[in-house]
Design goal:
Number of strands: 0
Distance between the termini: 16 Å
Helix content: 55-70%
Number of domains: 1
Largest sheet: none
Number of helices: 4
Shape: globular
Length: 85
């Protein structure tokens, strides 16, 4: 569930960036894709979040909550956990 929430929040952050970029570019999706590509400055969820906070695209409360979810997501994503149904 945390992984899904993390993906939804990351998508919301992407949309926030694209809305901001659209003020300066006719193709914000293309610009965001370049910025968040493999070697781009926004390549990782952590960097996307930190830059958004630094530029005032998200406030401190949002930043702190996203950061908690990001840390929990990383813990869960990098541990071997067995589930049974």
């Amino acid at each position: 569930m945390v992984l899904v929430i993390s993906m939804v929040l990351d998508k919301a952050l992407q949309e926030t960036y694209e809305a901001f970029i659209s003020r300066f570019s006719d193709s914000p999706e293309r610009v965001f894709k370049k910025l968040s590509g493999q070697t781009g400055p926004l390549a990782s969820p952590a960097s996307r979040l930190l830059v958004a906070y630094g530029y005032g695209l998200v406030n401190e409360l949002v930043f702190r909550n996203f950061e908690i979810i990001r840390v929990v997501r990383n813990i869960l994503a990098h541990q071997a956990v067995t589930f049974s149904f």
